[in-house]
Amino acid sequence: MFTGIVEELGEVVAVEDLGDSSRFRLRGPLVTEGARHGDSIAVNGVCLTVVDSTEGEFTADVMAETLHRSSLGALAPGHRVNLERPMALGGRLGGHLVQGHVDGTGVITDRAPGEHWEVVTVSLPERLARYVVEKGSVTVDGISLTVVEAGADHFSVSLIPTTLELTTLGRKKVGDPVNLEVDVLAKYVERLLGQGGHPVPAGGALPTEGAR
To answer: Tens of pLDDT along 88-107?
Structure first.
């Protein structure tokens, strides 16, 4: 579990095409400090498993499903990435509960600079729109952000100077893709309230797959 508070702006060192998957080597001296085989590190909001770690770099395999659902497939050597280690039990929850399980991708459609911040608008897949609400939380490229305005096919967020300087969102341009993860609590609430067409029975138990 992550919090959406980016720890380090890392860099893609190499990408190896393995046919139905890819192997990434990424540089991140902070997040690799003490990292071992099997540990998790979020890369642009995608939870990846460390295969190997040495001298400030780590290797991770990315399966076809992840490449298809996220923007990681567009990464190339030299690209900067947001990196975060999992939250330690008992640690501070600086952002919100982030799983590192990307729900889909959006595209930056507008950037409006302000005096002390910048408002960024991102397109939103229709199937995810119901989970994004004004003043709610959304994860963009692994960054926990508060929604300023939520529309049927887009949402906007305000970025403070620190976010612009220390994350990829300070470098992304209009037309660039970003990974999106909606608040998992919204999906659980929807399920419990029976919005998927299965009202919760009096006993509180939801129907199983076999009972549908």
So the answer is: 777 666 667 788 899 999 99
